[in-house]
């Protein structure tokens, strides 16, 4: 993956106004990790352009490359819903990546 965070904002800019934080952990099925990484490489630039997304970070496991960690900050619940309803999310995540996963966990937080 080439891009990890919003290129036009700093982390400080993103978090100073609060928002809804989504943390997700994925684990690819055996033999599917590189395919998942390629899908995420196409997905991430689209997600970063989303007007309701304040910050997007995706990491791949150093010791286990089948693991992926998402750290996403949205303006609010409506922005998260718009993200999940977007064509790019439906194409890359729902349509391509999710069938390749053995595990998917998500949690939401409000910044303090």
UniProtKB/TrEMBL annotation:
Residues 20-109 form the ABM domain. InterPro entries: ABM_dom, AI-2_Isomerase_LsrG, Dimeric_a/b-barrel. Pfam families: ABM. One of its GO terms (molecular function) is catalytic activity. It comes from the Bacteria. PROSITE patterns: ABM. This is ABM domain-containing protein. The lineage of its organism: Bacteria, Pseudomonadati, Pseudomonadota, Alphaproteobacteria, Hyphomicrobiales.
């Amino acid at each position: 993956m080439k891009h990890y965070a919003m290129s036009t904002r700093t982390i400080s800019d993103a978090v100073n106004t609060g928002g809804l934080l989504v943390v997700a952990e994925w684990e690819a099925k055996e033999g599917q990790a590189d395919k998942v990484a390629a899908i995420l490489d196409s997905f991430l630039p689209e997600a970063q352009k989303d007007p309701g997304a304040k910050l997007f970070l995706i990491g791949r496991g150093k010791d286990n490359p089948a693991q992926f960690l998402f750290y996403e900050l949205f303006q609010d619940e409506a922005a998260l819903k718009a993200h999940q309803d977007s064509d790019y999310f439906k194409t890359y995540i729902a349509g391509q990546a999710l069938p390749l996963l053995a595990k998917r966990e998500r949690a939401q937080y409000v910044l303090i």
